[in-house]
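Page 42, continued from yesterday. The earlier attempt failed because a stray header line got pasted into the input along with the sequence. Redoing it now with the clean sequence only.
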Amino acid sequence: MFIETIKTDGLAHLSYVVGDGIVAAVIDPRRDVAIYQQIAQKNGVAITHVFETHRNEDLVTGSESLADRTGAVVLHGPTNEYQVPYAQTVREGERVQLGEASLTVLETPGHTLDSISIVLRHIETGDSPLCVFTGDALFINDVGRTDFYPDRADEVAGLLHDSLHHKLLPLGDQTIVYPAHGAGSVCGQKMANRDFSTIGYERRHSPRLSLARAEFIQAKIAEHHDYPPYFRKMEQINASIGPGPDRELRKPAPMSAEDFAGELENGLIAVDLRTAESFSGGHVPGSLALPVDMLTTFAGWLVPYKRRIGLIAAGPMQAERGARELARIGYDQVGGYLDDVITAWAVSGRSVGRVAAIEGPAFKQRHDGGPEFVLLDVRAKPEFDEGHLEDALHIYLGELPERLDELDPGSEIVTFCGSGQRALIAASVLKRAGFEKVTVNWGSMGACQSLGCRMAIC
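This time it went through. Structure tokens are written below.
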């Protein structure tokens, strides 16, 4: 028997291949599914089943594509909310045999109403579970968000509590926990930077599991989670009728400065994958800064689905990675990429955009002198609530394009976050919208904590 974990960075997504004998199952596959076939081939097994532990809000599932390629059966939990045309419904207690191992379904609603967990046993261990694939019900040091049903907030939070305490914890302390997401996912808040745990460890150390039912419900209702607009797009794609959103992820083709400029005039949106520092030093005017390590976190907020995308990259490998990560959240309209932007763009006789910057000591001096500028803090609400500077205006980065009317285009705006990375993205959003007096604060809260900037008293 073997278990292999596939970790998809950017999305903090975890999927699994479980096999024994000559057959295997895949749990929560991502869109680009070739890796699962490669693992199956390496282990000499055929993929016969694909499990979806819940509806996917944050990525395009590869279930239908993988089934189309392998002939596997897709299994999904019970739901009255929508149809999953490519899947069969499974319910509590149903079991799939994999050689001498078996996978048994537990219905664990709460994160979503269709959530299931998958318990792995082996003939050698009898009824004692070896591990459980918990989807988004139980994470490492956290539990799933329950805010997808705002009109049923108490009910679904209670459902998750019951799923955790009456279905998952009784599996026994020895049971290994394999969740569908790790640290950095938008599906939780305070996940540990580990990809697996045990029921026993989580029982003793996970903060939410120590709460009584009423306390748990109140704690879940009080949580703040951002809801990216692309979540609805993922629901739409993942419920599509097909043989799937299956496509080989093509490498984007290089484009000349002339061709890139021409496409921009025809509506292309330029997404710059380079580092924040590189963008600040020189970029194609009007381009959106989305450093590749932060691409999937913010693209779904800031990049429209109906526009063609032109990437700006520090080489073909970065462009390929960017196109692949965009495809995982449903962006298929990447037209090509511009390489070596400063040289190519400037040599073509075109102007190069820059973002003004201010660093910690100079920023502190200006901030101490009074509100001569708009200090725009673009961190998430929980970060802002934990501590922020005096006079700061808070607009979360993802919401900035929809809230530009709250800012005066004639004012000087200094963008601010935890380190300066998100502040640079915010500066690019403002520059694209025609704001001219924009400065990014490198160091941001990290520098201010070291230097002792004036903090607001909460």
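Notes: The first strand starts at residue 2 and ends at 8.
Reminder to self: strip header lines before submitting.
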